[in-house]
Amino acid sequence: MNIDLHIHSTASDGTLRPLEILASAHRFNLAAIAITDHDTLAGSRELLESGSLGGMKAISGVEISAAPPPLCPRQGSFHVLGYGIAFDHPRLNRALEKLQSARQDRNPKIIQRLNSLGFPLDINEVSALAGGVDGLGRPHIARLMKRKGYVASIEEAFDRYLGHGKPAYVDKFRVACEEAMGLIREAGGIPVLAHPGVTLDAAIDLDRLLTALVDMGLGGIEVYYPAHHPAQTARFAAAARRYGLLMTGGSDFHGSLKPEIQLGTGAGDLAVPFALFAALEAALDAQRLQAAGTYR
Ligand SMILES: [Zn+2]
Ligand SMILES: [Zn+2]
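Predict the joint structure of the above. Result:
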């Protein structure tokens, strides 16, 4: 029995709607899923409020774009997954709205830069090609560039124009890492370090970083991830045990935007055991009991 706790829907930059993801998860015989859209709870909420999971387990989720913490030299996004959060927490929702509107402002700026680099395209074309999804972003712009023949592939669009430090790159607003984790905790959830093998430089002092992140409220590490090779998976699993952190895993499925990644199985060899979901649920239950005790 396998699970997938890292899935994007049309509420951010995935191409399947939440209920299509549910149907697909049934076809792949997954035992539990979490939709973790970028900076929005809408997809996760639609899944959990559909009222008909058909025996599947599901948990609320989000992937917050945070600024890298001090010990982490890498530019770009530091993704924090949040599980088991309440949908209506006001402060979390305000922060997510701010991130969403910053994302909306960013696309026109990127398009302006591409125009000045000699690529005619506009936001309506991006939106039309994306099929009216809510979370338009660079992957959709990349897809339009490919469609128009400006680049041969989505990877090329990122490598030459849209990636960090490239000529059409526009920096984006992010919440501080500590704030992201604090908001997830406040909303009753557990913050998890997303795809550390992708986010962190290989040379990073993992122990110093994790010590700092645990102080900020970190509760888990995404150990199982398609881009993690076996040595990385083992390294992060050992680190999770050392710090008493939960282990999670998922495919980072985006539908046809990342056609090489399948729900549940990732690039073909991902297998995230159900026991991790059971441990996550138990930790959330314990947290709820503790919170209830505090306010008694
Ligand atoms: Zn991510
Ligand atoms: Zn993701």
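The first helix runs from residue 18 to 27.
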